[in-house]
């Protein structure tokens, strides 16, 4: 890892901040007061879904080994339980990567230098127990103030270019557009518009190359004590990476150093439209991950309530 | 089907009520006004999770063919993406029945007499397209006022007996305890305490026999224009059934006739405690199903916000 | 379907040949005498495997919906069953399309005009029971004389061109090279060399376009009373098809009309080398499908014993 | 591990016998000569299948975590590929434990004292690569002489009692009944009759308690240089174990020390009848495992050819 990485890491590291036994990192910043205050700001009651539909024709192209799109099949169709003419039931199952579609990265999704968040040994993730520390089920109910940082709209474009690195300056501009000061316990949703490529049917273009967050953004979130961050790309951070050969540095900084969960493949298009129309970029966000015990990630069906 | 079933069905039938093309039934009753009004009542900001942890040691015992507990495995553990010493990722997948744990029944989960909700032909569910009508992804974001109808507490017991049929009179008593008038667009959560058996490690006792809702309850919900109902049992309704040989009549009435989604395996224990302490049984409920395209059911991680 | 198809179909149709209740078609042609006679010809004892390794990096590219490559994960690694220091076990699971790798098409894999082999209604395949007739488990143990028809070698090339249609004349030439008269109960293995493309890492080129069998070949097999046929391509027959718009006519003729199972993705490279060296193209073939009840296809690990 | 275990282990250990890089152990003992000689003994051409049907109602009861019965669903039923009236295909997938039904234990299935067969470190099994050494795909084509050791018939009973430990003396008696000297490269099939319990519908009784092989049997196989062993039980060895607290000692001796693969859940009932009628207990056995790369076990559809 280059020196730059280590310097940033030192400035944003949260290990021990909530005690040696903490497993949820910046989710500690979501307080009942934040939730209460945000609920009070709900003025329209409009609910906007941010999840992609779960289907085999999902965003995965096979590039990430094992992260398979939802394979959803029926185990029974109109089975008459007590004989002909009686009530009939249908049932279904799925096989899918927990990070295949709209998801949260659990804190254990990434390690570096043999360590997970809060200094836990990377080897604590095993086949048998999955993530012994910071499993995604530990996150509990994620409900807080969400703020849309519409970098795309702030730049006056429909979609960021494939090579666009989202910088702290971009976030500043989006915050200004939002007219909101991002603060303690907020969940920041960063819009790049990249997901339009998938929605238009071009999975390959969606995957790579992709705009995404700069290695300089974790400090921006750290300074504001943000609880979590999500965006509308497959890789979250710029890909190919800013610094050649340094893959997923933002993941390492956010998840391992700060203990801050990241969301990916969130569809922010309708939300962007709604916020622009309402001239309001903060809302109540309900985004509880499916509580897979020991999961290193989890599907989520987030909803913004304006 | 006995005459009693058909008489009730006639009184509560909602086919055509929201047009011939409607696929979501009583979810139409959730209005922005309901959400807005409920958000304003959030006074503590406390968030209570209602989902069971997702794990192989889940509630399924094999009795329902194909409805398998989550089988959650790792596809990679600390894989160093760009060579030794670089950032490492872990990844996981799952195979599970969509109704294996805490879930919503989609409207297409049940048919009777060859019909689904709103008169759609049962044959519209196929392996290839799954549920063509009323797939669970059509439900969209489910956020509304939740009301806990704590039948157990209202009867002054810790847990209903295995053979207890939850009647409209039980619901009246629970409504009185709640001090709330259940109304249009509400989501009613009915507590029986049965899930304690699973939480205590006895899956078999949880499964069967089980207390549950009476064939007389759909009318109670219909009269109040409730949007959806969930409880803390595997079968939702009393099992074995009230009328010998008439399996799942409540499913048929709720899902097919009324077009009202049902939730099962919801853990209402912590919520019961919290409501009793706060002397408050209504709250903001965020319970959006994972949007499986054509799903006849879906996992959900519901949260009550008080 | 064009007239040509129907004319061929009439000439090769085997419906009723082994009775109205038959479910295995030309496998009836394998007699104990064939097996006994072939066993007597084993002169070297050499065993040649014909299956591709089962792995996620398999031949499927996503073109066939749901036919997923083997996703093979561990459910336990070195789990010490009775405490530290005791014997430890590892365990694994797989999710895969039954026809994802080296496989047999079951007779129920294809229908046309609403019919399966022996006139069974196509609707007899359901989600609940899978193939009620001619499920792949009905095939039983498939062991017979195998004959390699090395069309590639007979033409003096390393691999057939992508657009090469394997004709009856090609089969004649390969039979002559083999020095064997293909006969009753034999299993014919047709080599095109196409699988070299996959083995060399180019899945896309392997998939499409592909050489394969002509619509004229079923008559060749029918005339000789062959029991089954397999080759080294993904689609078995020429693709794109010989007659524009007529997809999978050979499947329809072989499986539905003749009741003859087809194998695909068989690796015939080592076998080709061995046969050429031994100047011997007939052998004992053990190729029993995994007996999935109601399966429309099944993985197989075939072995040629020379 | 008790002293007795270590003493036996010392006497039967095969590490290094076929070189330090060997990964297949006693399969080395199957020579072309053995196969050739056995093929010459095929006198009837009768083929007897030894695999259980693969279905959800399989032998697994949930006792072994993650080892799930085959969950077999359709991904398409009669899908008309090129539009209405054209050829239609059906397709299916499965999720299953590789050792769920009739299977081979790969050599990497068990470790003890941190070691696998041939001294390989147990840690060489990983989620990412699965078994780096002795993966089941390394076994290659398993075809050899099979010998039925019908312990049940030799004792004059229909089925061994649940507590019956199969001893070397039992094997001697069965060998005498067989009229065959078990020798180098043979695959021994040991019949207990226990599988009758599953076939009769009582999975629980099949599982446990179960008759099975004694800790004294590995020496018997070692003395004869047997290539592999299989039987008709879930656990292979007596369960509960002979020596209290010493779980799976026979697995540890056979797989780790000798490098000898074990088969379980083989249905030997029809074979027993056939051998008794033919007064012949040796045959050609084709039992090639599905070649899962890095698999610690694999399904197999074995066939005895008499």
UniProtKB/TrEMBL annotation, chains A, B, C, D:
Question: From what superkingdom does this record's organism come?
Answer: Bacteria
One BP term from GO: L-tryptophan catabolic process to kynurenine
Q: Which residues span the membrane?
A: none
**Molecular function in Gene Ontology:** arylformamidase activity
Record-linked SUPFAM superfamilies: Putative cyclase
Q: What is this protein called?
A: Kynurenine formamidase
Q: Native species of this protein?
A: Streptomyces olivoverticillatus
């Amino acid at each position: 890892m280059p020196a730059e990485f280590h310097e940033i890491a030192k400035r944003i590291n949260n290990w021990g901040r909530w005690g040696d036994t903490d497993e949820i990192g910046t989710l500690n910043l979501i307080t009942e007061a934040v939730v209460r205050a945000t609920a009070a700001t709900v003025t329209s009651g409009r609910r906007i879904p941010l999840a992609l539909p779960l289907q085999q024709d999902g965003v995965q192209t096979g590039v990430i080994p094992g992260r398979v799109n939802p394979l959803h099949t029926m185990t029974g169709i109109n089975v008459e339980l007590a004989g002909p003419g009686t009530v009939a039931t249908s049932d279904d199952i799925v096989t899918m990567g927990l990070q295949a579609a709209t998801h949260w990265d659990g804190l254990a999704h990434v390690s570096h230098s043999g360590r997970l968040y809060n200094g836990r040994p990377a080897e604590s993730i095993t086949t048998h127990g999955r993530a012994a520390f910071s499993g995604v089920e530990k996150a509990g109910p994620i409900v807080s103030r969400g703020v849309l940082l519409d970098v795309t709209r702030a730049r006056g474009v429909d979609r960021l270019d494939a090579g666009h690195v989202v910088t702290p300056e971009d976030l500043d501009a989006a915050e200004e557009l939002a007219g909101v000061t991002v603060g303690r316990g907020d969940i920041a949703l960063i819009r790049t518009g990249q997901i339009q490529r998938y929605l238009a049917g071009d999975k390959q273009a969606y995957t790579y190359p992709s705009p995404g967050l700069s290695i300089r953004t974790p400090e921006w979130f750290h300074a504001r004590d943000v609880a979590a961050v999500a965006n509308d790309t497959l890789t979250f951070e710029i890909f190919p990476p800013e610094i050649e050969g340094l893959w997923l540095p933002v993941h390492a900084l956010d998840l391992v150093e700060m203990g801050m969960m990241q969301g990916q493949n969130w569809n922010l298009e309708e939300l962007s439209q709604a916020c622009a129309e309402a001239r309001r970029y903060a809302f109540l966000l309900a985004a509880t991950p499916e509580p897979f015990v020991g999961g290193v990630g989890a599907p989520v069906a987030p909803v913004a309530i304006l």
